[in-house]
Design goal:
globular; 25 strands; 3 domains
């Protein structure tokens, strides 16, 4: 078969097959063109999910008559002034997207440049370009695409239902809107407005977070940690959610490189490693990170749609992401996300409250009678507005609802009043001034319920603590600290394990031998393509050494790191912490409860257990008052 040149129309259709997968692909290319043109307002209009019609209207600088006639020619662009493919500072090339779209659809471009009196209109149908015509349009550009893939009908069968295609378009616009907070974005279909993001003010320091909040929700805004790290030629900023704000998939992880939304395994792996200590393996944090670096340090042309990139120094990129996220999480202290309290309050909404008639027991009545003679205020009609009850009254109120703390010498048959007196006597000698709430963010312990939950009173609310979950975190952090200070204890193998690998795997594994040795794994070459493992971390006990090495090799193949071993050790530490922590069902004294609260306040990440679940819920006083109709 003889070699021949393909006709231009077929060449453009082949290119379109690489760039245009569905309507969202065309929208992405067109909106990126609008951003490169300096637009501050972008509107997208759809019909039939973009299959029959889509338009992108912007207020950018527009194109003059000559540029408009060239923009649909293949390899014509205004975005490479120095003809350097490795120094790209724009989002895309008009010369790529427009001729590709025009070859498979009916394309109409109307544009007005401020150097000309009126706008011009250009039409392209199935690759055939028509003559320019005068048109009416304010400054900017309007690109209309009708009957997508009419020239390549085989592609139509791969399109999904209109709603599915709209979802993909929304995802594309949301990502572009997140990276451009000073630009307004609007998405409409034939029925309603699907997305509306108002332009943020450049004078607003919170503009970026407000834009993220409009897309990711108020929960993210309220529970986001700021990221700002500069390292060598890298600049990383953005926001990361608290670990207790997590999802079952990575749908809310957004990553940008030089303003371009990308999907990159190095960036995703960096996020996973940074949160590994705080989340279960099947949970994912909410993050939005923007990485800026020299254009020559990243190849943006790996993928036709430019959704993937290749870094010149991937190790440094991963390092800055992990260190920046870990630093932010470390500085968050014991804070837990506000969604925990909101969910708790939502579950406590009372729809119907039955009328109850209760007869107090004789011991309770006698205790109340004795207490009222010595401690209760003399006035009637309930608590005075805005008056704080006495310490004794608050203690009494909580003790009446919960088991009394274990007190030495207290007989089980003692009256309630005697139990209360002994408990208060014990408190006076073992804890600080009960009214000094301001010094303690998590408040002071008042009771223990179900032998599992600590009830504490804070300066403006109530704190409920899961004693097992929080102590598990405290023990885990202690084990990590000990390991970092004294190193990982290793144990020699009576029979060294010989493992057969490929030559490439062996060399890559041995190149990381020093790093692996720091993690407690000592191995060396053993002839041919084998390695021998002579020592392993004592924490791993009699684990499957061969499987561990194979997992590490896979990890090195994928990420060029030894994260698998560290992840395994972290899992073992977590198991040890779980077994060494206070169990549910153990009764605690008030002194023990307060000691646990104080340790929480001084320990990073104590707001969530090792699996990402919250360790405490804080209900604000105003929220409690709403539950009872006081507000």
């Amino acid at each position: 078969m003889n070699i021949r040149l393909l006709p231009p129309t077929l060449i453009n259709q082949i290119a379109a097959g690489e760039v245009l997968e569905r309507p969202s692909s065309a929208i992405k290319e067109l909106v990126e063109n609008s951003l490169d043109a300096g637009a501050t307002s972008i509107e997208v209009v759809l019909r039939d999910g973009g299959r029959s019609y889509m338009a992108v209207i912007d207020n950018g600088q527009g194109m003059n008559q000559q540029d408009l006639s060239l923009c649909v020619q293949r390899h014509a662009t205004s975005k490479l002034p120095d003809e350097d493919l490795f120094h790209i500072k724009t989002l895309g090339f008009r010369g790529e997207a427009l001729p590709s779209i025009g070859s498979v659809a009916r394309l109409k471009i109307t544009s007005k440049h401020d150097s000309e009196e009126h706008a011009w209109c250009l039409s392209v149908e199935g690759g055939a370009q028509k003559d320019l015509e005068p048109a009416s349009l304010p400054l900017g550009t309007k690109v209309e695409v009708s009957d997508l893939f009419f020239a390549t009908p085989a592609r139509l069968k791969f399109l999904k239902a209109p709603q599915t295609e709209i979802t993909h378009i929304q995802d594309v616009l949301k990502r572009l809107a997140m990276a451009n907070p000073y630009v307004s974005f609007t998405l409409k279909d034939e029925r309603k407005t699907l997305l509306q993001c108002a332009a943020q003010s450049r004078d607003d320091n919170d503009a970026a977070l407000k834009r993220l909040g409009s897309i990711m929700g108020d929960d993210f805004t309220e529970n986001a940690l700021g990221i700002d790290r500069r390292q060598e030629e890298f600049v990383l900023n953005g926001f990361a959610g608290l670990p207790t704000l997590n999802r079952a998939n990575a749908q809310y992880q957004f990553l940008f490189v030089n303003g371009r939304p990308v999907k990159d395994k190095i960036l995703n792996h960096g996020v996973k490693v940074a949160y590994a200590d705080y989340l279960a393996r099947d949970r994912f944090p909410l993050v939005c990170l923007f990485l800026e670096l020299d254009p020559e340090a990243v190849d943006m042309n790996v993928h036709p749609a430019k959704t993937e990139v290749r870094f010149r120094e991937p190790g440094k990129v991963r390092s800055i992401i992990v260190s920046a996220l870990k630093s932010a999480l470390q500085n968050s202290g014991f804070r837990a996300s506000t969604t925990v309290a909101n969910e708790a309050l939502a579950s406590m909404t009372v729809e119907h409250q039955p009328t109850l008639t209760m007869k107090p027991s004789s011991s309770f009545a006698q205790g109340m009678k004795t207490f009222s003679k010595t401690s209760m205020p003399a006035y009637h009609g309930g608590a005075r507005p805005n008056e704080r009850p006495s310490t004794a009254a608050r203690n009494f109120a909580f003790a009446a609802q919960a088991p009394a703390p274990i007190t030495p010498g207290l007989a089980e048959g003692s009256s309630f009043a005697l139990q209360q007196a002994l408990a208060e006597e014990n408190l006076e000698g073992t804890q600080q001034d009960q009214d000094d709430f301001a010094a303690y963010p998590l408040g002071l312990a008042r009771a223990q319920v179900y032998e599992t939950y600590i009830i504490a009173e804070s300066v403006d609310g109530i704190v409920i603590v899961d004693q097992h979950a929080v102590h598990e975190r405290l023990v885990y952090e202690g084990l990590k600290k000990e390991m970092s200070e004294k190193g990982i204890r290793r144990q020699g193998l009576l029979i060294p394990e010989v493992i057969e690998l490929s030559e490439t795997q062996k060399q890559k594994l041995l190149s990381k031998s020093d790093e692996l040795e720091k993690l407690g794994l000592f191995l060396e070459a053993f002839g041919g393509n084998s390695v021998v493992v002579r020592e392993m971390p004592a924490l791993l006990g009699q684990g499957d050494i061969k499987q561990l090495i194979l997992d590490i090799v896979d990890d090195l193949d994928e990420m060029d790191s030894s994260a698998k071993l560290q992840e395994t050790i972290d899992d073992i530490l977590g198991t040890m912490a779980c077994h060494g922590s206070i169990r549910a069902g153990r009764r605690l004294s008030i002194q023990e409860m307060n000691e646990l609260l104080r340790q929480m306040e001084s320990t990073p990440h104590s707001g969530q257990c090792n699996h990402g679940r919250p360790t405490y819920v804080e209900l604000k006083k105003k929220d409690i008052e709403r539950l009872f109709g006081r507000r």
